[in-house]
Write a structure and sequence with these properties.
Largest sheet: 8 strands, antiparallel
Helix content: under 10%
Low-confidence stretches: none
Order of helices and strands: EEEEEEEEEEEEEEE
Amino acid sequence: AVGTATHVLTSNGAGAAPTFQAAAAGGAWTKIGTVVASNDATLTITGLDSTYDTYCIILADIVPITMNTYPYIHVGDSSGIDTGGSDYAWTAVGWADSGGAEKHDASTGDSKIQIIGLHTVGEGPGEGMGAVMYLTRPGDGTTWPMIHGRMTQVTSSPAFRQQLFAGVRLAVITLDRIQFSFNSGNVSTGRMTVWGISHA
């Protein structure tokens, strides 16, 4: 018989007719959400919960409207995004393509997680940034929400730099959302996607 919507034709082994059945569960990574920038002040994805212990957030082909800007991450719960003046602590360190000295910056009480050291992101031809980061705590976890990752940015092309960063929300919250923005101006183009990573 013909299956219902979303069913797939499935083999039942040698000598048995195939039948339509519900598709198997997804893989180890499940997409929670994705958002494409179009001159937006922020990129926000909701839907994070206790289903996964770890989430991966990828920023792809991100370009700011304003030259020499700093990229920020915020998290929040059902009440909204947390932006209090001492909600976060973070650290970031970067290296230039010239092999110059590392650039480090940090804060123990801030209104955001800054994912870049003492460098900035450019908006000219070929300039922008990308990042891969992990949120290593479920939405209802008992630790402070921790984010860490790596990003690469181009400013004053062809100069480029890499950054390592880590940040924490200085409270135990029922986290269900994450937000990206710049310290000045909007996000011109690019995409943010969040995946939940299964532990089984």
